[in-house]
Amino acid sequence: MKKIGFIGLGVMGYGMAANLIRKGYEVTVYNRTAGKANELIQLGAKEAASPADATRYSDIVITMITNDAAIREVYFGDKGIFGAVRSGSTLIDCSTISPSLAVELAETTESKGAVFLDAPVTGSKPAADAGTLTFMVGGTEQALKSIEDVLFAMGSKVIHMGENGKGSIAKLAHNTIVGINITALAEGLAIATSGGITGSAFLELVQAGSAGSKQAELKGEKILTGNYDVQFSLALMLKDLRLSSVLSDNLKVPTPMLEAAKSMFQVSDSMGLGDLDLSSVTKAYEQWIGRKISDKN
User: Fold this and answer.
1) Angle between helices 214-225 and 199-208 (to 10 degrees)
2) I need a labelling partner for 85 at 20 to 30 A (CA). Which of 15, 54, 63, 179 fits?
3) Measured between alpha carbons, how far is 269 from 38 in angstroms, rounded to an integer?
4) Active site includes 171?
5) Cβ atoms within 10 Å of 65's Cβ, excluding its own
6) Ordered DSSP codes for 111-122
7) Is residue 134 domain-shared with residue 261, that is, in the same domain?
8) What digits encode the pLDDT tens for the residues 156-202?
9) What is the pLDDT of residue 296?
10) Within a domain: residue 297?
């Protein structure tokens, strides 16, 4: 059985690491914030003192980190992954980062005699906990086939997107649609409730009609109950939309809907909603229309 180092035990990483342990893999975990590994240790994980320690004896190292700056620290920093990576091992980054950084990580990994895959995920916290994530993977098919069993221990679908960097491009394009969809749902609810229709009645219509979406399915109940506990934070979605905006500029792709959604998330973040679930963008509309969209009084 492959030995796995897992770095980053946040909202997504914790559930992913737990599923690997439950599937019988020998897992060594590291998190920058102390204490996050305690329950995983009870499940059977070992705890490392640094990214290098999590890497040194691992066949596969998986990272799930918040942003480009944090990824650079984990890979290139003192006691980072690149100081301890073994020739013949595989590094898998499941974070949402810029495609250019994914390519840089791949090139540096190759210079160390190892293999790199950018493999971001979709599904948010419920899917991470249930082991039903979807992976979009950049890298060689040969490298993917060699570790596919590990990805399927954490997810239910693995899609090869092409060479290194393509997994990251796919994730940014995907999350562009997510950001637009949740903003559209919030705006539609604002119109309906301002017109005297209950949020629950309108959401039922949306889910039954052609305006239905995965966001309506996943976030509708949270909006109706005013429960914005984090499955995927508004701040992280804003980060992804900013990355997508840079990417689309580089690709010379006009993205008016992306820019509108990004602006909406920037406004919401400035209102102090960043640490709440991304569906809390609805709260900005509630402030503007002067009434609750949720059915909660």
Assistant:
1) 170
2) 15
3) 31
4) yes
5) 24
6) HTT-EEEE--EE
7) no
8) 999 999 999 999 999 999 999 999 999 999 999 999 999 999 999 99
9) 64
10) no
Q: Are 159 and 188 in the same domain?
A: no
- Give me the pLDDT at residue 32, please: 85
- Are the C-beta atoms of 94 and 64 separated by less than 8 Å? yes
Same domain, 153 and 174: no
- What are 152's two structure tokens? 């399927």
Segment (H or E) for 137: strand 133-138
Asked if 182 and 281 count as a contact pair (C-beta separation under 8 A), the reply is: yes
Q: 294 lies in a domain?
A: no
| Amino acid at residue number 26 | E
Please determine, for residue 34, whether its predicted confidence score (pLDDT) is greater than 80: no
Taking the C-alpha atoms of residue 221 and residue 209, their distance in angstroms, rounded to an integer, is: 17
Cα–Cα distance measured from residue 139 to residue 110, given in angstroms and rounded to the nearest whole number: 11
Whichever domain contains 235, its CATH number is: 1.10.1040.10
Strands 90-93 and 115-118: parallel
Q: How far apart are CA 135 and CA 123, in angstroms?
A: 9
Indicate whether 13 and 159 sit together in one domain.
yes
Cβ neighbours, 10 Å, residue 100: 14
Catalytic residue among 112, 166, 171, 239: 171
* Total number of domains in the chain: 2
Q: Tell me the three state secondary structure of residue 62.
A: strand
For the purposes of burial, counting CB atoms within 10 Å of the CB of 25, is it exposed (0-12), middle (13-18) or buried (19 or more)? Answer: buried
197 part of a folded domain: yes
Q: Tell whether the torsion through CA atoms of 280, 281, 285 and 290 is positive or negative.
A: positive
Q: Tell me which amino acid residue 167 is.
A: G
The answer to whether 179 and 265 are in contact (CB under 8 A) is yes
